Amino acid sequence: MKIEQLNTASLRKLKPVIDKPKYALTSVSCGVVHFGTGNFHRAHQAVYCDTLLNKGETNWGITGISLRSPVMRDNLAPQNYLYTLAILGETTSYRVIGAIQNLLVGPEDPQSVIDVVAHGGTQLVTTTITEKGYYLTSGGIDRAHPDMLGDLASISVPKTIYGYLAAALIKRSDNQGDPLTILCCDNMHGGGEHLQQGVQMLLERHSPDTLRWVEKNVAFSSSMVDRVTPATDQYLKDQVAAQLGVYDAAPVAAEPFTQWIIEDRFAGIRPPFEQAGALFVNDIAPFERIKLRFLNAGHSILAALGYLAGDQFIHEALQRPCLAQFAEQALKLNVMPVTPVPEGISSEAYINQVLQRFKNGNLPYGVLQVGTDSSQKIQQRILPTIDDGLSHGGDTSYLAFALGAWVCFIRKALQNDDLNDPLADEFSHCISANKGGSVAAFLTLAGANKFHFFKDVPFMAAVQIYHSNISEMGVEQAIDTFFNP
Ligand code: CS2
Fold first, then answer.
1. Nearest CA to 57 among 102, 100, 23?
2. pLDDT at 1 (0 to 100)
């Protein structure tokens, strides 16, 4: 028997235990345009918007934008953009989210993306385009990247987030449009500033007059977004179909925990996200820092160690006592002493909570998902902490070990054809060009040479030794040797 698909018609047939939009989907207008409508967005920010809509705020629907693949649009369009959020923890609950009203695919119709950002009803533009979507390099935005060169030459068909925003802001200012806030929701420091710099760079080139309008009318802001959200697999689709009684082509699973801390820098109308549980703060930097340096760093360390130990999921890596002990101590002994926390937060309690969340076996989270783009992620998550540790004369041995493990991870993942990283070709080349594929060469590719530790001879020697130990003994034995030299 063919099972019906989730959409506005089948919505009313769902069992009462399934939470559904309490608002009329047709009464929603889209005050938000979001770039990067993947799972992270759909399990997090879209849920905050959905909560506001449930509370009777009708302006905070979302127009989603995909800058690359049409897959999400193709999955969601037949469902009237409805999808299921499965919250998997000690208990399980299901909620159909209606906040996304439309989804555009940039390469198919760039002008419609420019138009929707320029549109008067749009109050807020948000991004989850992952680290590589910002084209960052040691000196800031990589002007030499082919996509950036393309946008520097012309933004009539933009290639980058900066190009889309610049083109839309030109149109918005030509229309004397309302103020706009552009808010970064990616896992990075100062995402709002990067967005501002990229937009400025392109406007200086293409429309210097618009720059003055932007200075007065556009706020670039950052936020800290937190909810563990795995990629969707067939198992989740089957589980959701069994619960809903209808088929959902793109459900998303997430942990019960959710947090959104937003820099209170808005132009024009600020959506009342506090009513949905978000927190507005004046200084976002300490919140970004604890998330990146404790949670995301912990994830990246466990992903590398777990992969090397043969685990598929983060919670499995944590079932190995030596990996669990290593991760906890790395965060408590190397990261904690050099990571100031916002007032009222205990770093120890924060770390304990993070590790507890990672143990959630009801929400398997792949080590290879965390290992995706690791060359970009470690630049935000691990490398700055090492410099801080060394400059404070603190212990950095765990982080040296983590870097050795990261190099082993890259090698093994390449060998197994598991590596998903924008620098995968460069890493392969580094090995095959018989540059020896040295530890320093791998780290240089990941931007480590712009950090002080790269010139710190004892630190780099330690990375080298740990790398050799892991390669020769295997990761668990190497950790054992690390603890009992
Ligand atoms: C993870 C993050 O995959 C990864 O790199 O570290 O996606 C992490 O799950 C989220 O930032 C949690 O909020």
1. 23
2. 56
The CATH architecture to which 8-282 belongs is: 3-Layer(aba) Sandwich (3.40)
Under a CB-based contact definition with an 8 Å cutoff, are residues 84 and 141 in contact?
no
- The domain limits of the chain are 8-282, 286-483
Which parts of the chain register pLDDT below 50? none
Give the β-pairing of 140-141 and 136-137.
antiparallel
CATH number for 286-483: choose from 3.40.50.300, 2.70.150.10, 1.10.1040.10, 3.40.710.10.
1.10.1040.10
Predicted local distance difference test score (pLDDT) of residue 437: 65
The answer to whether the CB of 183 falls within 8 A of the CB of 270 is no
pLDDT tens-digit map of 197-246: 999 999 999 999 999 999 999 999 999 999 999 999 999 999 999 999 99
Residue nearest to atom 11 of ligand 1 (CA): 226
- Separation between Cα atoms, residue 316 and residue 233, nearest integer Å: 18
Q: How far apart are CA 389 and CA 370, in angstroms?
A: 24
Q: Is the CB of 226 under 6 A from ligand 1?
A: yes
Taking the centre of ligand 1 as the mean of its atom positions, its distance from the CA of residue 27, in whole angstroms, is: 34
> In the numeric block, which tokens belong to residue 311?
């685990």
What does the alpha-carbon distance between residue 115 and residue 109 come to, in Å, rounded to a whole number? Answer: 10
* pLDDT value, residue 15: 86
Given this model, what pLDDT does residue 2 score?
A: 73
Task: Quote the CA–CA distance of 156 and 153 in Å, as a whole number.
Answer: 9
Q: Give residue-wise pLDDT tens across range 315-335.
A: 999 999 999 999 999 999 999
| Nearest residue (CA) to ligand 1, atom 6 | 296
- pLDDT value at position 138? 75
Q: Which two tokens stand for residue 249?
A: 């082509």
Concatenate the DSSP letters of all residues of 310-336 into one string: T-SBHHHHTTSHHHHHHHHHIIIIIIG
ipTM for this model? 0.99
Q: Which atom of ligand 1 is nearest to the CA of 381?
A: 6
